Amino acid sequence: MHIIYLDQFATSGMFDSTGIPEWEEIRSLLHTGVTMNKIICPMSVEHYLETSQKDSARAAHLDTEFYKLSMGYAFKAEPFITSQLMISAVRKNNITIRTFLHDKIKKGILEDEGNYQALHRQKIEFNMKAAEATVVAHHIRKIARHKKVDSKVGQSILAASRFITLSHFLERLNALLVHGHIIIRPVSFPSGDIPNWIDSIIYQLTNRHRMTKKELKTLISHLRKFEFTRIPTLDIRTSLSGLIAVNNKNENPNDQIDIGRIATGLALSDILLTDSQRKSEIQELGLDSKYRTKVFSGKKKDLEQLIGELKSIVAM
Question: Which domain of life does the UniProt lineage start with (predicted)?
Fold first, then answer.
């Protein structure tokens, strides 16, 4: 079974556009592969958020068509996957498709007007908070943007960015070790509070997975030794975020959506579709090679290569 991750532009290309031969052929090949039990295209949290920004009829149509390719599979939310990967590293459990995917999701989520409106509001709130969260970083990057960063300095900045996140993680895990519990801290924005994302993952470890004190010590040792290199979601997220910092690029809400998609989808997928910029970043970081994933963008050349890959899968 081949797992193919479809970004928003891919589902829109297949189900919203008409008369584009490459997308029509890709859609046909995917349907054939799904029918033959050779392909699944899992849905995602980000799919629902982004699709809810279309008008309700188009959103429901796209959601229904995508569901047909998913066979009822969908990626779990990133904190759930990350906590499962962490506890599996400690308990030496196998990483399977169930680590990443729900296998019996409800059909027609966006056909329900209540769901559609709720997700529509959530995406607007997400955009506001993402914009607020990056104001200071954007100001710093604006000042530094005229300065060219050479390769060696860039690698140092990337490593430092990843280390800062690791340090924050270890700080909270050590607090848990000392006190026996942590309180999920709010991150405050003018538009409202959200839970601290590191604390949210630790909450999953302690409450969902019932991590013991001995396992907590093992996890701390694991992260000190291997950092995030054996936790794919964190490895991918911190690498992409670090590269954005290296390149002094401003982040917008869609960048955060993209990072979330890739962090959850890249390691499990055989093929991942994303935009040209993200593809370039993935390849620059060597993440496609590390996780053995073929990455394609929406450029005509890429779509033609993707068609060739899909034909090979269907013909197996």
Answer: Bacteria
Measure the CA–CA gap between 313 and 309, rounded to whole angstroms.
6
- Half-sphere exposure in the Cβ direction for 171 (13 Å, CA): 8
pTM of the model as a whole: 0.91
Higher pLDDT, 26 or 189: 26
Average pLDDT over residues 179-195: 83
H helices of the chain, in order, are 8-15, 21-35, 45-51, 56-70, 78-91, 97-100, 113-133, 135-144, 151-179, 197-203, 213-226, 232-246, 253-265, 276-285, 287-290, 300-315
Q: Which residue blocks in 54-112 are alpha helix, DSSP H?
A: 56-70, 78-91, 97-100
State the Cα–Cα distance between residues 109 and 7, nearest whole angstrom.
18
pLDDT tens digit string along 156-170?
A: 888 888 999 999 999
Q: At what angle do helices 21-35 and 56-70 cross, to 10 degrees?
A: 50
Distance, in Å, from the CA atom of 266 to the CA atom of 121, rounded to the nearest integer, reads 27
Q: Are 157 and 246 in contact (CB under 8 A)?
A: yes
Taking the domains of the chain in order of start, what are their residue ranges? 2-76+103-181+211-315
Bridge partners (DSSP) of residue 74 are 43, 102
φ/ψ of 39, rounded to 5, equals: -140, 140
pLDDT class of 71 with cuts at 50, 70, 90: very high
